[in-house]
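Q: What would this complex look like in 3D?
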Amino acid sequence: MADPMRIRASMQGDKVLVRVLMSHEMETGQRKDESGNIVPAHFIQSVTASHNGKPVLSAEWGPAVSKNPFLQFQFAGGKLGDKIQIIWTDNKGDTRTDEAIVS
Amino acid sequence: METIVKFERDRREILKIAGAAAVYGALVAAGMARPGAARAQGAWNQGAFASKSLADVVKAYGGAGAEPTSEVAWGSTPEIAENGAVVPISVTSRIPNTESIAILIEKNPSALAARFQFPQGTDPMVSTRVKIGQSSNVHALIKTADGKFYVATREVKVTLGGCGG
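A: Here is my prediction, written as structure tokens for the whole assembly.
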């Protein structure tokens, strides 16, 4: 199981600003190890964010997203104490779900 | 005719997702996966991520071409990036009814880096970090709710490449 995400969700005026740091190698599949073998691609393919259970963002990613991905977005209609949930799934089927409260 | 073709493609996508969902259901039943993760099983557009050019990515998402636009703000996106492995990209669309923003790095092995979809209520803006192998044009490809594509382009120079490891 991958390390937890760090999620910060804060009110910025009437919007909720969400910042996420994920822990993932994001291996491109182009790199070779010391013995010259290609290191297989391993990267997050899909990310979804929801606010109190309602989707607020979805993303599909390729291996060009940097290692330990960063994501920032904002949406309207949230308030202090609301729940933000982020889910990612990678190309090997690993998945991780984390939550934060809007502060 | 085009609509039918598109419908057929959508139908196949749905079947693919349904298939994945069935497998997933079995995993949940076997206690190997958590139900909350189901929503992350979106359709990953393999064709789009295999594309080498902007035109092919537009095609992979069902478009014929993209109209150049200046209605995009690049925020903190640098013009010169020292480290190609971690280049901050920030894109804000001022085009009404923006449904999705895709970020493409023209000279990367696969052009498409990431695509973000914004439901109603979410601002059409996103920040992330990407790898850029060598100095390249970066495209922000925008799709609106009525199915039109727009593209804004910016050159990012890289002093240290990001795909070597």
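A: To summarize the key features: Residues 25 and 46 of chain A are 15 Å apart (CA to CA). The radius of gyration of chain A is 15 Å.
Q: Very helpful, thank you.
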